[in-house]
Amino acid sequence: MALAWNEIKDRALAFSREWANAESENAEAKHFWVDFFDVFGISPRRIGSFEQKIKKLDGRGYIDWLWKGNLLIEHKSRGYDLDRAYRQAIDYFPGLKEHELPRFVLVSDFARFRLYDMIEGTHSEFLLKELYKNVKLFWFIAGYQPQKISPQSPVNAKAVQRMAKLHDRLKQIGYTGHALEVYLVRLLFCLFAEDTGIFERTQFTEFIEQQTREDGNDLAPQLAQLFDVLNTPETARLKNLDDTLSRFPYINGKLFEERLPFASFDRDMRAALLYCCAIDWSGISPAIFGSLFQNIMD
Length: 298
Fold this sequence. Notes:
This protein is α+β, with helices and mostly antiparallel strands.
């Protein structure tokens, strides 16, 4: 049975006082999170795992704590850049299976908490001493029913909503109309292609991870070059083309034929696209792209 919110608030106040002076990630992090979950009457080992081993594109790593499908925690020493901690957390996504992708990402340096909702595309930040005011953000830990999204759905709601966020952001900056529609369909094709054998496995993901900056500033020109390569037969391509581009196959047809104006991306938009890359699109038929795209545009 879930604890009453008033009791959780009292526990949060005690937790904040107990850990007010903690600083070292290595020495104290695990005990910190055991006590954090105890605020909600939960054992972290019962629902998740510390030091979850993960395969990354650039090697192997360890997630500080993972509750598959729900929450990923990245913990740092006091004063660490939380933006950087969040980027590190996002880098784990390609190594997770679809049903393991967390809805929430929580980063902390003892003194601060930042909770990201990967479905809503929002985040909340507060100080350790303010935890008691923000405990309801952690309703999914407290024992209330999480808003689960079925990983069995062929048109995965996580991917649809993240693409919708990209659509909205591009529209906000003035990338609209026909160009926006074609651009999103191209991205959807690339997501589908690397999970169904059209591209090499994770080829599109690795292109974004390795060939674009984390701040997203060069993502649009890199995608423009990729779209041009996809529209060019292998025999007609530049002979000194970088291997990361030359390995992409020629896509016959008109999808990549039209010259589109450059889009523009930022850090969050790049992260949203990488989140979509982590979804398994192999269960999605090409015929369903039309309805999927309609959902994004509505």
